[in-house]
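From the thread on structure requests for the teaching lab: each student submitted one protein with a one-line request. Submission from student K.M.:

"Model Putative transport protein from Natronoflexus pectinivorans, tokens only."
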Amino acid sequence: MELLSQPYFILFLIICIGFVIGNIKIAGISLDISAIIFVAIFFGHHGLEIPPIIGQLGLVLFIYTIGMQAGPGFFDSFRKQGRTLVVLTSIVILSASLITFIAWYWTGIDMAVAIGLLTGALSSSPGLAAATDAIDSPLVSIGYGVAYPFGVIGVILFIKLYPKLVKADIKAAEDEFEKESHFEFPEIKNRIFRVENEAIIDRTIAELKVRSMTNAVISRIQHGEETMMPSPDVKLQKGDLIKAVGTEDALKKIELLIGHATNEDIPLHKSYEVQSVLVTNKSVINQTLGAFNLWSTYQATVTRVRRSGIDITPSPSLRLQMGDKLMVASSHDNMQQVFRIFGNNDKKLSDTDFFPVALGIVLGILLGNLTLSFGNSNGFEFNPGLTGGVLVVGMILSRIGRTGPIIWSMSGAATQLLRQLGLMFFLVEVGTKAGANLEETFTTYGYNLFLIGGLITLVPMILAVMIAKFLKKMNFLSLMGTLTGAMTSTPGLAAVAPMTETNAPAVAYATVYPVAMVLLIICVQVLAVFG
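Reply posted by the TA:
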């Protein structure tokens, strides 16, 4: 068939078939996008090939977007309980790598196969990408393909069975998480207070330093029948009503400063409005909220900021990020000026400027080609390689966010599209290359590969839950999320999510996943040295 000699036709044919097979569920389990590599292995076994440039293009796109997505979570993961989660993650990755090394040393399997088993047992596509970059051998993909099915199923079975074996109290874990979440991200509320404190009569809001003293924001004031915006030079009079926005703790401080709360309401002045303003103007990214002098210039007040689903009390030192949603009170006329400053254009969030992506990948490739020497001429040399260089640059740039006019961060939709595209191209190319050596590998190693892959999947999880008992007391749901993140298993997270109505597993997963990915890539590169 003439079409089968055209690489672009084979490429998209494998992707189509892979998606069809990947969406088939057996006992609630599916291979999802990873089914593409099995289809590619089948095609490769029958002599069909994909040009290597397709795989290399997919590799850099996939790894760069992984870095962009993982960067902020990686650097933030060392805060608070994240340190405990990182310890468990390290135990999982390092023990899995140790088992891989022992299997290579004792059984004599090729190191490329062993590393493939490691990445497949942890169901890690980034690990496979790093392994392929470190060892240019189709045996890596074969090992991955052998270990991957149980890498998915084994994690799901463990997540489902372990809570029953230990008779875990899910309700208690939910209550504990809710208390912790409330303490870390307290709910933003609003309340009306009557001015009663004689000590503040005839004093201005600026003199009272309301924001710095209480961490609350005054959004409007009613003096007699007149409603006004909270200008710093407005003097409070006895009987005035003020509306304050902040956490419960901040509102209690307002009550101590101002007077008792009341059920009365303050109507919004007809010349003022309250609107949500989206930050989409590149020029304001990373600038502090106080730098705009909104009140003195536009008589506008920001009462709260919503970022990544969390309400934040605004402060002059708060640095703005792309996609922040500001709740602003201002006059009708000045609101348009506020829109102009911050952008308020949701279309820009879906637009993708490809220049920062291309520049970031170029910088990553340059870093990957650097060789660091330790010691004299016979000392140790380290080269991050294509995968390491692109990943590190992506993580750093995502953390920086902006350099001059360049916005490094991308919208979630754009990141997901490039990541999926890169992963598909990469899986097709490495899969077809691996398929050519499939029969020879199984003839050489037999079913030992399945056993080794199973051990790499199960032993680290068992070890992690045993050690978790000796570490700082840990929320059970967070432990389950940590295991799925450490095993880089999205299907595993999908299995634990129905256990609870909280997002405890997802929070832990998001914290440890980037750490696990980086550690695994480092371990892969270290193991490759022995190969």
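TA comment: The radius of gyration is 28 Å. The chain has 22 helices and 13 strands.
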